[in-house]
Specification:
This protein is mainly alpha-helical. The chain has one domain. The chain is built from four helices and no strands. The radius of gyration is 20 Å and the shape is elongated.
Length: 79
């Protein structure tokens, strides 16, 4: 797995992983021709990136555009 990380890497040991979770990780790893570890790191990376979403959204300016206006615009562009 090519990592986008540089510098220090830490180790995480997981215990008591449910069988169904391991089965899914193994299927994902086979489908990607990679290791379960690589898949687990990829999935943990994606999940942990979402932790800051609420703060990011809260920092955006309020443009005072009603939701209905946005929905109408999107629907008109789909026609």
């Amino acid at each position: 797995m090519q990592s986008g990380y540089s510098g220090r890497m830490r180790t995480l040991h997981l215990r008591n992983v449910p069988d169904d979770v391991m089965d899914r990780l193994e299927r994902m790893a086979r489908a990607a021709s990679t290791s379960v570890t690589a898949v687990a790191i990829r999935e943990l990376d994606a999940a942990t990136r979402r932790v800051d979403n609420a703060a990011l959204l809260a920092s955006l300016p309020d443009l005072n555009i009603p939701t209905e206006t946005i929905v109408e615009q999107v629907e008109s562009e789909r026609r």
